[in-house]
Amino acid sequence: MKQKILLFVLILSLGLNIAFIAGGAYRRWKFRPGRLPAELHLSRTQKEKMHSLELEKRKKIDPLRKKIEIKSEELLTLLKESTSPDEKIRKKIEEISMLQCDLHKSMVEDMLEKRDILTPEQQEKFFSIITKRFGRKSPPLPGFPPVGESHPRFKTSPTERGGPRHP
Questions:
Q1: How many domains would you assign to the chain?
Q2: Is the residue at 9 inside a domain?
Q3: Is position 69 within any domain?
Q4: What's the Cα-to-Cα distance from 134 to each of 137, 138, 155, rounded to whole Å?
Q5: Nearest-angstrom CA–CA distance, 51 and 70
Q6: Which of 3, 60, 138, 158 has its CA 20 to 30 A from that of 106?
Q7: Which helix (H) or strand (E) element contains residue 80?
Q8: How many angstroms separate the CA atoms of 134 and 62, rounded?
C-alpha cells in the first residue's frame, strides 16, 4: 500500500514537471520577446540592455530546462522498473526539485535585472504584464480543493468538516 501511494505521488510529480515545462514552452511561443518592448515603450538603450539580458538569461535557463527534462525522463524510467529502490527514486525527485529551484531563481534574478533598467512607470506596466501572463490561477485538479482550502478529510473538528456544532 505504501509503495502504491509513493508511486502515485511520484507519477503526479512527474506529470506536474512535464506540465511546467510544456507551459513554459507555450508562454515563450505566445509571448514573444519582441512584444515586451512595444508594450513598455522602451528607449533604444533600454531595448539593447533588455536584449542583452534576454540572451544571458537563455544561456542560464535553457540548460536548466534541458536537465529537468532529462532527469524527469530518468525518473519515469525508474518508476517503470519494479526493482528500483525507493531511495533512488526519492533522490531523483530531489535532483529535479533542486534544478527547478535553480530555474526559478534564475528567472527572478532576470526580472530584477530588467526592473533596474526600467523607469518607475515602466516597472509598473512590466509587473502588470507579468502578473497577467503568469499570475493566472489554473483550476484545481480533480479531487483536490482550491488553493487556500483544505480537503474535508483533513479538517480536524466536526465544525470544520461541516458537522454539527456542540455547545
A1: 1
A2: yes
A3: yes
A4: 8, 10, 31
A5: 28
A6: 138
A7: helix 44-80
A8: 19
Q: What is the pLDDT of residue 131?
A: 83
Say whether pLDDT at 65 is over 90: yes
As given in the structure block, the three cell numbers for residue 12 are 503526479
pLDDT in tens, 112-163: 999 999 999 999 988 888 888 776 555 555 666 665 565 555 555 555 555 5
Which H helix or E strand runs over 108?
helix 86-117
- Residue 162 resides in a domain: no
Band (29; pLDDT cuts 50, 70, 90): very low
**Gap between the Cα atoms of 161 and 156, Å rounded:** 7
> Which residues form the domain of 83?
2-123
Is 144 part of any domain?
A: no
The residue to which cell 528500483 is assigned: 84
Grid cell at residue 22: 510544456
Per-residue model confidence (pLDDT) at position 122: 92
Q: Give residue 95's identity as a one-letter amino acid code.
A: E
Q: Residue 165 is placed in which grid cell?
A: 456544532
Contact 64, 106 (CB under 8 A): yes
In angstroms, the first-to-last Cα distance of the chain is: 40
Find the length of the chain. 167
